[in-house]
Specification:
335 residues, mainly alpha, 73% helix
């Protein structure tokens, strides 16, 4: 692959991570409903800076638009068997609450959408480039196409998140697909490399790397569940200082499980060093885990400071991405 193509794969990955970070900042600052419609913001390409630029009935207008979209989404859920979830959406009075205009929140959400727009277009350009120059590489064409489809799906899911007034489970689903996109982009980067490094020297090392990836995925899901419970506490106006005590057991399990992940990855680091396998990515993984621990300690003993939450999520996304990139460099021989 050309140097320019490989560079684009990495630039695309960086913007995908920026989307993850921006989304977390939006969630932490409570800016998710800063733009009550999608893809425009207050029905404008460039959002307003003050409520004076909006009609007097803007709340009623956007609530009606949301009702229509929620009804359609509920119909989709019902058609695939999620009848209970569909009814919950139809009968949830919180969905019809429109917030007062807040310029800071509006522009925070708008910034998130701009970063997403750039990332989406980079994924599109990457697919077109692959189709034109490397169409004989069937797997690469397939993965760049699938990532393009997933980016479009994420955009649609983002509109559902807005339409449902930030129902917590839709936000968690949004994050789940973001992780899939990150993993696929790392796979694309690996395929674009001319001389990928592979190791067959230690089967234990190889399998442990897969196991560590699985543990990280489980931990992120657990963290998403904790965050989902916190979202409900926010909706009930529970004070930030009382979040950990209220969530309780789920948060403690999430925190304790991190020790399992650290232990497994330190064992991987030890094998890599002892057998001189040469995977420097292991050092990066351990460093990220240490930073995750530091942010976790701040969560526990500093009442979950808002500024730490986006960093914690970003580190988790980078961690699982690097782990996935690492296992793409391994060749496991099953005998």
């Amino acid at each position: 692959m050309s140097k320019g193509y490989r560079r684009l794969t990495w630039i695309t990955l960086i913007f995908i991570f920026l989307v993850t970070l921006a989304g977390s900042i939006v969630r932490t600052t409570g800016s998710g409903m800063g733009c009550p419609d999608w893809p425009k913001c207050f029905d404008q390409i460039i959002p307003p800076t003050s409520a004076d630029q909006l009609p007097d009935n803007y709340k009623e207008k956007f609530v009606e638009g949301r009702k229509e979209k929620v009804q359609k989404f509920a119909g989709v859920l019902e058609s695939i068997g999620f009848t209970e979830k569909a009814e919950q959406l139809r009968n949830d009075p919180n969905l019809w609450h429109e917030e007062d205009f807040n310029a800071a929140r509006t522009w925070t959400e708008y910034g998130n959408r701009l970063v997403g727009f750039v990332a989406g277009n980079l994924v599109l350009i990457l697919f077109i480039w692959t189709l034109i120059k490397y169409r004989n590489h069937k797997l690469l064409v397939l993965l760049t196409f699938l990532n393009l489809i997933l980016m479009g799906f994420e955009g649609w899911l983002g509109s559902i998140v807005v339409a449902t007034n930030l129902v917590p489970w839709t936000i968690t689903l949004h994050m789940f697909f973001a992780l899939i996109i990150i993993g696929m982009q790392f796979k694309i980067i690996h395929l674009a490399e001319e001389n990928p490094v592979e190791s067959e020297e230690s089967q234990l090392f190889n399998w442990l790397c897969y196991f560590a990836l699985f543990l990280t995925f489980i931990q992120i899901i657990l963290g998403a569940q904790v965050r989902q419970e916190i979202d409900f506490l926010v909706m009930d106006d529970v004070h930030r200082a009382d979040w950990i005590a209220t969530v309780g057991r789920d948060f403690l399990f999430h925190r304790s499980f991190s020790w399992v992940i650290l232990t497994v990855n330190l064992f991987i680091w030890w094998i890599n060093r002892k057998k001189q396998l040469g995977f420097n990515l292991i050092n990066i993984i351990v460093m990220i885990l240490i930073l995750e621990f530091i942010t976790g300690v701040l969560f526990s003993y500093a009442n979950m400071p808002a500024i730490i939450q986006p960093l914690h999520l970003l580190l988790a996304a980078i961690l699982i991405g690097i782990q996935f990139y690492l296992i793409n460099k391994l060749k496991i021989r099953i005998k």
